[in-house]
TrEMBL record:
InterPro entries: RraA/RraA-like, RraA/RraA-like_sf. Substrate binds at G100, E101, I102, M103, R122, D123. This is Putative 4-hydroxy-4-methyl-2-oxoglutarate aldolase. It comes from Caballeronia hypogeia. The keyword Ribosomal protein does not apply. Keywords: Magnesium, Metal-binding. It comes from the Bacteria. Gene3D superfamilies: Ribonuclease E inhibitor RraA/RraA-like (3.50.30.40).
Length: 231
């Protein structure tokens, strides 16, 4: 099987996005960050929070597993540092849950900021009504095996999006966005400008300026309105 660049399936030494940048990015919706990142980096919509109130932001501890096996997730829980987010490539498989209340309790007690998993979880009632952020692709009462090697802190694909160890992941009610570690500072600057613009637009709507100014121009550009024609 392939391993991390250091030749070890468990890579303990990664470079993380800084806590200061995580704190700054956490102020923004995942949607704002995705927009200013070029509408890229969003995880497939099947990966959702168990409760709409759940939010998470932090550097990714990446995990790759075979469908239905969670052994590598236990390794990740053991080496993750406070503030990290466990991010699991479970291949979108929901035939077995890869974690439940016990593992979530361990993660919370360890200071891990949250868990994002492209696979199923269980103990949904307890987890959804708790305050610990869990994002998953579905639910299943069937438990996992713990017998197949995986990878911890190697590049993975999470719901069709590339994630490298230490990248910023932000999740909220809309879903999950991944920002490459080296781009985070730039994206945060753009996010504030985007938020300022959206805030001004909503204020304008409240004052009666309902129609956005750019609509007619774009309709003409694609041939839906003739030159000089107005809505």
């Amino acid at each position: 099987m392939s391993t991390t660049p250091a030749g070890n399936p468990i890579n303990r030494n990664i470079e993380r996005v800084s806590p200061e940048l995580v704190e700054a990015a956490a102020k923004y919706q995942a949607a704002i960050l995705a927009d200013v990142a070029g509408r890229r980096g969003t995880v497939h919509g099947r990966v959702k929070p168990l409760s709409a109130k759940m939010k998470v932001a932090g550097p990714a501890i990446t995990v790759e597993v075979r469908q239905g096996d969670n052994l590598a997730i236990h390794a990740a829980l053991a080496i993750a540092k406070p503030g990290d987010v466990i991010v699991v490539d479970g291949k979108g498989d929901i035939s077995c849950a890869l974690l439940g209340e016990i593992m979530a309790a361990q993660a919370k007690a360890s200071g891990i900021a949250g868990i994002i998993i492209d696979a199923a979880v269980r103990d949904a009632h307890e987890l959804a009504n708790g305050d610990y952020p869990i994002f998953s692709a579905g639910l299943n009462p069937c438990g996992p095996t713990k017998s197949v090697a995986g990878l911890v802190n190697s590049p993975i694909s999470l719901g069709g999006t590339a994630v490298n160890p230490g990248d910023l992941v932000v999740g909220d009610a809309d879903g999950v966005v991944v920002i490459p570690r080296q781009d985070v500072a730039r994206i945060i600057d753009l996010a504030q400008k985007k938020l300022d613009g959206e805030t001004a637009r909503i204020a304008g709507i409240m004052k009666g300026d309902v129609r956005p100014a750019w609509v007619e121009k774009e309709l003409r550009a694609v041939g839906m309105l003739a030159e000089g024609e107005a809505l």
